[in-house]
Design a protein that fits this description.
mainly beta, Porin, globular
Length: 234
């Protein structure tokens, strides 16, 4: 996967969609007619006293700008479950995502972006799920703030919706380096997490990488979640 991404980078300069955060969406979409190939790798350890038991989630994303305010993405999802005696890799399904910015940055008191996603697993007897996000953001000089309110609805039983959030605060140190903090949580499930994130962007905008770490704040949370994001525009 990573080799394919790096090969794509040689195709020529394009406008990237760099992410300051790795769990929290910001106020940005791809430019019209531009595309980006992205790779997500997430390592989850539910109990750090048993580190040999872990789950690795892999996502490959193709993102395309329909207009300067609207883009689409297609994801292919894979996962790898590891224990002391087993190691299982599998295909988990696909996601189709759309984002739309309501205005240009700074025109509204809070920059507002709408997000919709359809997720379908490998069990074709299930209808999949819909996910909606309200993304609010604000840049205050070098400080970037973002908040995502999320609702995910299983199509078979919409009443079983899960409501959660993610939020980030990041600081722009240079044109190529940002760092900050992120928090995530699931309302009503006692799952809350907090940790640092850092982003590096190539000066020529040919690629970017973000790395984040979350630590569980209560017994209902996973002890550790680490995520790497890599984006290569073309």
């Amino acid at each position: 996967m990573l080799a394919a991404l790096m090969t794509t980078a040689a195709a020529g300069p394009a406008k990237a969609d760099p992410r300051t955060f790795v769990w929290t969406y910001e106020y940005m979409t791809m430019h019209a007619g531009k595309a980006e190939l992205g790779y997500y790798a997430t390592a989850e350890v539910a109990d750090t006293s048993v580190p040999e038991n872990s789950t690795w989630k892999h996502r490959v994303e193709l993102e395309y700008g329909l207009t300067d305010r609207t883009d689409l993405s297609l994801y292919q999802m894979f996962s790898q479950a590891s224990t002391a005696t087993t190691n299982t890799f599998r295909y988990d399904g696909m996601k189709l995502r759309a984002r739309h910015r309501l205005a240009e940055k700074g025109e509204l008191p809070l920059d507002t972006l709408l997000y919709a996603e359809y997720k379908r697993g490998t069990d074709l007897s299930a209808q999949g799920s819909l996910e909606a996000k309200l993304i609010l953001a604000k840049d205050l000089g070098r400080l970037r703030l973002a908040y995502n309110q999320v609702a995910e609805f299983p199509l078979e039983r919409p009443s079983d919706a899960e409501h959660r959030f993610s939020a980030g605060a990041g600081w722009k140190f240079t044109d190529t380096v940002r760092a900050g903090l992120e928090a995530t949580g699931v309302y009503g499930a006692d799952k809350y997490n907090l940790g640092p994130t850092v982003n590096f962007r190539a000066p020529d905008m040919k690629g970017w990488v973000s790395l984040g770490q979350l630590y569980g704040l209560n017994p209902g949370s996973k002890d550790s979640q680490t995520r790497l994001l890599l984006g290569v525009p073309f």
